[in-house]
Automatic annotation (TrEMBL):
EC number: 3.2.1.21
Keywords on record: Carbohydrate metabolism, Cellulose degradation, Glycosidase, Hydrolase, Polysaccharide degradation
Alphabetized Pfam families for the sequence: Glyco_hydro_1
Record protein name field: Beta-glucosidase
Binding-site residues for substrate, renumbered to this chain: Q29, H130, N174, Y298, W406, E413, W414
Cited InterPro entries: GH, GH_1_N_CS, Glyco_hydro_1, Glyco_hydro_1_beta-glucosidase
Active site, renumbered: E175, E360
NCBIfam families to which the protein is assigned, alphabetical: BGL
Keyword Hydrolase recorded: yes
Length: 452
């Protein structure tokens, strides 16, 4: 067991009790076992079969194989000393086609996982949806269709009916911005549509599904509910890039946060964007009070005016002068940007902002494929800097209650396959063997000191 350093002791001391520490994963990225036990077909099952679409040709099999080896994951979580584990439920394991009754074998799996976590003293903190809806629903319109909110409410009811006696803390939909912009807008995530501005109805339908899920969870006795979105601090490349910054901030941040926190969309017409397909009562449902607001943060974003005419007046460009993660210039490392973002949320939303949970934060760096102990000093530096930035924000008056590392395990990283590694624990993606990295020991020591 690693010793606590003076720096870790000083960092831990900056967090007021009872601050919580967590680690996260998602179902498609770690479970494997894509076929059998009644599991249906998700948009990612369809996407990984597209030739050459995933960088290394990976299909998420076997990966960590957590469907069969979840006990190993729970042991790692117990060893870390985390308060809570953020994992996601696979819609197609629970409701294979997105309609109809539950598949009992899928719910049995999550039953076993929840019980194992509780036995280990780790609070289960599931996410209902992490980008893997049934392919059958996608073929019926996916998030472009308003009916998806109804289907999501039905699915949520199946979940709370089975798990609600033991699970009391919930995330609804993970990062609706990513599904809209990358899944439907530019096509870098499943379902890989390239609709650009025509993807915007997916914003409203995801937020409506969130609102419907909150209703169902509240009725089922949930104690804590929130939604995590990926947010970024938007910066200008040049002094005359103000319009580009405002538009990108709208599309990445405000169009998702404003309706949840204020009950209204920003003025889309002012930006030349079409109105949202809002029906009477939608915004009241979307803005129902939450117990926390989740912020997933990885990096700031620098934009400049578009160099040629097009549907959007901005371009995303590298941030000058900053180091980068394994993703390269699009993922600059700047912990101060997290502090600025948290303070901006406090100032922008005021009393409408519930307590904040950092739902994801982490970094990928090049590492070996085979099972090996990794001395990932770059990751430790990244985590230390961003955790310190959270402490800075708390000291500036922002109410942050929890920090979550992405990710517990190296996993299937979407279009990057197994080429990007975010884990505190190295996973040999052929054998599923797990080997804790130096960052696992570092985070464990930090948590132990914070809990002392």
């Amino acid at each position: 067991m690693s010793e606590v350093t003076l720096d870790q002791r000083a960092l831990a001391a900056r967090f007021p009790a009872p601050f919580r520490w967590s680690a996260a994963t998602s179902s498609f990225q770690i479970e494997g076992a894509r076929r059998g036990d009644g599991r249906g077909r998700s948009i990612w099952d369809a996407q990984v079969e597209v030739p050459d679409w995933v960088k290394d040709g990976a299909t998420a099999e076997p990966g960590p194989d957590s469907y069969h080896r979840f006990g190993d994951d729970v042991a790692l979580l117990r060893g870390l000393g985390v308060d809570r584990y953020r994992f996601s439920l696979s819609w197609v394991r629970i409701q294979p086609e997105g309609t109809g009754p539950a598949e009992p074998r899928g719910l049995d799996y999550y039953d076993r996982l929840v019980d194992a976590l509780l036995d280990a003293g780790v609070t289960p903190f599931p996410t209902l949806y992490h980008w893997d809806h049934p392919q059958a629903l996608e073929e019926a319109g996916g998030w472009l269709a308003r009916e998806m909110a109804d289907r999501f409410a039905d699915y949520t009811q199946l979940v709370i009916d089975r798990l609600g006696d033991r699970v009391h803390h919930w995330y609804t939909l993970n990062e609706p911005v990513s599904m809209t912009l990358q899944g439907y807008g530019v096509g870098t995530l499943a379902p890989a549509r390239q609709l650009v501005i025509e993807a915007l109805p997916t914003v409203h339908h995801q937020l409506l599904a969130h609102g419907r899920a909150v209703q169902v969870l509240r009725a089922g006795g949930a104690a804590e509910i929130g939604i995590p979105n990926n947010h970024t601090l938007v910066r200008a490349l040049r002094d005359d890039d103000g319009a580009a910054v405002a538009t990108y901030d709208l599309l990445h941040n405000r169009i998702f946060a404003d309706p949840i926190l204020t009950g209204a969309y920003p003025d889309l017409e002012m930006y030349g964007l079409p109105p949202m397909p809002v029906h009477d009562g939608d915004l009241a449902l979307i803005s129902a009070p939450l117990d926390f607001y989740g912020i997933n943060f990885y990096n700031p974003t620098t934009v400049t005016q578009a160099s040629s005419p097009g549907p959007l007046p901005f371009e995303i460009v590298p941030t000058p002068g900053l180091p980068v993660t394994g993703f390269g210039p699009e993922w600059p490392i700047d912990p101060a940007a997290l502090r600025e973002l948290l303070i901006d949320f406090r100032d922008r939303y005021g009393a409408a902002l519930p307590p904040i949970v950092i739902g994801e934060n982490g970094a990928s760096f090049p590492e070996p494929d085979e099972a090996v102990r990794v001395q990932d000093d770059d990751r430790i530096a990244y985590l230390a800097g961003h955790i310190a930035a959270v402490a800075d924000a708390i000291e500036a008056g922002v109410d942050v209650r929890e920090y979550t590392v992405w990710s517990l395990l190296d996993n299937f990283e979407w279009a990057e396959g197994f080429t990007q590694r975010f884990g505190l624990v190295h996973v040999d993606q052929r054998t599923s063997d797990r080997t804790p990295k130096a960052s696992y020991d570092w985070y464990r020591a930090l948590i132990r000191e914070a809990h002392a």
